[in-house]
Predict the 3D structure of the following.
Amino acid sequence: VTINIGADVPLNDLKLAAISCNADAIALSFSFAYPARNVVPILVHLRRLLPEQIQIWAGGAGLSGVRKPPNGVRIISDLKDAVVALNDLSIHHSTQ
């Protein structure tokens, strides 16, 4: 199930939504207009807020300047990466 909660959601609200709906992953998209200097700090902060079992996927043109993703964040560069991430999530669920 995919739930779109919109843009510019405060991180604490995103955390509460993810926990309340028992999310397996949160996918974020950063546009090219998003300030590049804010991308990594946002991802690091969100990773600290969320339980470890909730995956964070990030994509979009705003990530073009990110050399190394923060620990616990998966970069989704294209549709192929998204399919692989979904497959990995499915495999993870089937082994639990």
